[in-house]
Amino acid sequence: MRAAMVTRFGGPEVFELVEMPDPVPGAGEVLIGVEMIDTLLMETVVRSGTAQDYWPMRPPYVPGGGVAGRVLQVGEDVRQDLLGRRVVAGIRGAENGYADRAVAAAEAAVTVPDTVDLAVAAALVHDATTALALFDATKVGRRDEVLVVGASGGLGALCVQLARARAAKVVAVARGAKLARLERYGADALIDVDQRDWVDQARAVFGGHGADVVLDNIGAPLGEAASTLLARGGRFSAHGAAGGRFSSVDRQVADALNLSVTGIEVAQLADHDRTRYIEQALREVAAGVIAPAIGQTFPLDQAGAAHAAIESRTVFGKTLITAGGARP
Fold this sequence. Notes:
Blueprint: E1 2-6, E2 15-19, E3 29-38, H1 41-48, E4 66-74, E5 86-90, E6 101-105, E7 110-111, H2 118-124, H3 127-138, E8 145-149, H4 154-166, E9 169-174, H5 178-182, E10 189-192, H6 198-206, E11 211-216, H7 222-227, E12 230-238, H8 251-256, E13 260-263, H9 271-286, E14 294-299, H10 303-312, E15 318-322
Helix pairs in contact: 3-4, 3-9
């Protein structure tokens, strides 16, 4: 098989396309001919070597924790009717996904409906499961007014769409030219975070009530500024750290306003929960409720270029890698 390997810690140039033996599925596993690969900002951080205290990967390794493709082989105790199915799957350990072959637990391989493109399915495997978990944790309801910080990323765009479907009002915050591409998702207001008075603009949209829910996909300092917009009894999800660190809310302020504050822990899902959320996301796509924002794709031999694009912070939506691994 072909794989994009991180040969050493460093910049995007450390990727090397290598030939490796095809993996063999063990008991309870399937071998997937990978066509589309999900990417994450965190994968660029791990590759850089700055997250060694938190992630176990050490070069050489093949990153990647989410793929979509066809089942080519099944292991012992796996149903034979899975052979040939189009599936999307999370991969244990978040490794070995940047390849045209990948092994996943059979229970994690979710069948993709014929009406859903595999690129769409791959774009759901992390962002949609996280978004759905966040909405469950913050208990977004019909009367809620929601602020989405960092709305132009893959996760952010899905949050806007889910809020549009579930809440009374959604305000999307993003940077500059990316705002125009968010118009299609139906936010009640789009606010440019590059404007010095963006917090005041958002406050005017929410009026005297304030935001019931703030979904912070960026982290400090933007998320902390957004937290000042919360209404009494509001819910703050401090799950993003693209800004360098997670946002925090002063405990005394939180207690005084009866705020509920959750973090990235709500998106650390057990395997069965991730599978359940992927199945739900596929239903939401089929029903037209959500459509992942796929901004750009790169071939497997340009995995480094994909990482460079993500790190530039200029891309819109989800970045995917194509692998072309459906061949038998």
